[in-house]
Amino acid sequence: MNDKKFIKINASDDVIIALEFLNSGAILSVDGKALILLDDIPFGHKIALKGIKAEQNVVKYGQIIGAAKCDIKSGQHIHTHNLKTNLSSIEDYSYSPVHYCRQDPQSPYGRHCGLDPQPPYGRHCGLDPQSPSMQIDGESNPAMTAKDSAKFLGFKRKDGSVGIRNEVWIIPTVGCVNNTSKILSQEANREFASYIKEGKIDGFFAYTHSMGCSQIGDDMKLTQKILAGLIKNPNAGAVLVLGLGCENNNVKNFLPALDSFDNDRIKFLTTQEIDDEYKDGLDILKSLADFAAEFKREEIPASELVIGFKCGGSDAFSGITANPLCGKINDTAISLGARTILTETPEMFGAERLLMNRAKDKSVFDDIVNLINNFKNYFLRYKQEVYENPSPGNKEGGITTLEEKSLGCIQKGGTTQVSGVLNYGERPNESGLYLLNGPGNDMVSCTNLTASGAQIILFTTGRGNPFGAPIPTIKISSNTNLYERKKHWIDFNAGEILNGKTFDSAAQDLFEYILNTASGKIKTKNEISNYREIAIFKDGVIL
Q1: How far apart are CA 124 and CA 127, in angstroms?
Q2: Which CATH fold topology does 6-84 show?
Q3: Measuring CA to CA, which residue among 462, 466, 441 is closest to residue 532?
Q4: Residue 87: half-sphere exposure toward Cβ, Cα within 13 Å
Q5: ∠ CA(49), CA(55), CA(61), 5° rounding?
Q6: What is the pLDDT of residues 61-113, one digit of tens each?
Q7: What pLDDT score was predicted for residue 13?
Q8: What is the 3-state secondary structure (H, E, C) of 254-312?
Q9: Distance between CA 369 and CA 362 in Å, rounded?
Q10: Which of 118, 293, 361, 377 could cross-link 200 (Cys pair, CB 3.0–4.6 Å)?
Q11: How far apart are CA 416 and CA 461, in angstroms?
Q12: Run of H or E including 484
């Protein structure tokens, strides 16, 4: 950063980013040269550093973010009026595995050092990437805590998974029993309040949705996969599956999706088959609370963490502060043996090659290609524009093209290899970074992360969002203004990085916050406000 009024991300960039509203005629000193602003520049928006001809590419993050619609002068505002995407629909990809040298401070992704890309981590410039002395972006690797000292207090489940909350969940098979589920959770929280007060469980929660009836084929199977994944999430010490009886997804039809399960942990109730669903429901919830109360917090290594990464309501600083900060946390978690999940497939478009080049092998590369092209085909099947993104809020925050948005989004994935691709309801089976199929929609993508076994979500935002998933959702603001205005929404302020705080220091603080949240010492703002919602992805007809 050369001036507190702006930031230049990469030495090769054609643009700088305004850190406050800047008036036309203002003069900035950039790389020792005077830059006269020809337009008013909103907070977070781009300023041209040089003249750019029509159709010439524009570079930010050291990567191409689009092409000029017309000639652009040095000092002009660059946004939707003069910048367009370069992206087309279906593309061809070639397998070009590379590893990036983490020693180059000029690029968020580093520079390939020309060494053997085949080992999972390799050796770059003579340094061991797993060593605490490894440098990333000019700083030491954050929070590289010794594996035997990074721990949290969690709940070991009988199937070998680990939860960070000990809750009793009610999951409806169909939307028709949504209110029944809500009433049962409210009554249970009142009637069995002593369980919560004494710390035996963390509460009863109903997760309602609109699916489960009048669905057929693959669309119904998708609903079942998501519901089964939610039911098996280890943050639920016990679960009541509540059905109506006449729905397509009735309990009998749903059971195969669960495969094997613990009959003490999961109970079923079909409301059409009994006289008083509230009495019987509360009796079952009492037995489930007794079962969940058997679990106690114990010391767990950080290798048992499963962390989901999501952004929502992004602005221009999401890709400068909050998302790269999450990338450092991602690298750290994986170095400790944890599993991490990155989703929002459409917000990989335009940056997908960077992820493909990090695939651990050809099979994973092929899976990423299928992930990207299958989701593009989903748009095309419905005759929709593949690149109808960013959103209006993104654009107001300074993001112009999908390439720009995606290059910022994927930074949550850090710099490690991509270990695999997950479909709806699938879980990562070993340490590493996984890409999860699904849209960018906040409610749907966070539901998908929960169904894939994440115990906690890091949710970055530049615009703000009160939403929360069934699991603790740590909201990370990209700028301090949002944090100061919405402290009842935001848990952690990455905007301090714009004010001089180092990534290392911020990452150390955030990693400690994650461990304390996992241990139950901190409740996230979504938990405090009881913002807990799910939404199931739909791709099919309603009968």
Answers
A1: 6
A2: 2.30.130
A3: 466
A4: 25
A5: 45
A6: 999 999 999 999 999 999 999 999 998 778 889 998 875 444 443 333 333 44
A7: 95
A8: HHHHHCCCCCCCEEEEEHHHCCCHHHHHHHHHHHHHHHHCCCCCEEEEHHHCEEEEEEC
A9: 11
A10: 293
A11: 23
A12: helix 480-485
Judged by average pLDDT, the poorest of 37-41, 124-128, 174-178, 538-542 is: 124-128
Cα separation, 154 vs 284, whole angstroms: 25
| Residue 361 in this model has a pLDDT that exceeds 90 | yes
Strand bridging mode 418-422 / 266-270: unpaired
What one-letter code names the amino acid at 92? D
HSE-CB at 507 with a 13 A cutoff on CA atoms is 25
Q: What is the largest CA-CA distance in the chain?
A: 80
The residue among 90, 71, 292, 105 whose CA lies nearest residue 201 is 292
Q: What is the pTM of this model?
A: 0.90
Q: Are strands 266-270 and 139-140 parallel, antiparallel or unpaired?
A: unpaired
CA angle 165, 168, 171 (to 5 degrees): 115
From residue 200, alpha-carbon distances to 235, 238, 254, 255, 293 in Å are: 14, 12, 30, 29, 5
Number of Cβ within a 10 Å radius of residue 446: 28
> Percentage of the chain surpassing pLDDT 90?
84
d(CA 149, CA 145): 7
pLDDT at position 450: 98
pLDDT at 138 over 70: no
Q: Which one is the CATH code of 167-294: 3.30.870, 1.10.760, 3.30.530, 3.40.50?
A: 3.40.50
Can you tell me the distance from the alpha carbon of 339 to that of 261, in angstroms, rounded to the nearest whole number? 23
Half-sphere exposure of 426 (CA within 13 A, CB side): 15
Mean pLDDT of the chain: 90
Amino acid at 122: G
CA-based end-to-end distance of the chain: 57
Q: Read off the pLDDT of residues 402-419 as tens digits, 9 standing for 90 and up.
A: 999 999 999 999 999 999
Sheet with strand 473-477: strands edge to edge: 418-422, 432-436, 339-342, 306-311, 456-461, 473-477, 492-493
Task: Write out the two tokens for 119.
Answer: 């080992």
- 401 and 409 Cβ atoms separated by less than 8 Å: no
Q: Mean pLDDT throughout 343-359?
A: 95
Query: Taken in order 355, 466, 313, 537, is the CA torsion positive or negative?
Result: positive
pLDDT band at 195; cut points 50, 70, 90: very high
242 residue type, one letter: L
The amino acid that residue 350 corresponds to is G
Q: Which two tokens stand for residue 381?
A: 């099947």
Interstrand relation of 306-311 and 298-301 (parallel, antiparallel or unpaired)? unpaired
pLDDT digit string, tens, across residues 18-32: 999 999 999 999 999
Residues, the chain: 543
Q: Is 198 exposed, middle or buried (0-12, 13-18, 19+ CB in 10 A)?
A: exposed
pLDDT per residue over 484-525, tens digit each? 999 999 999 999 999 899 999 999 999 999 999 999 999 999
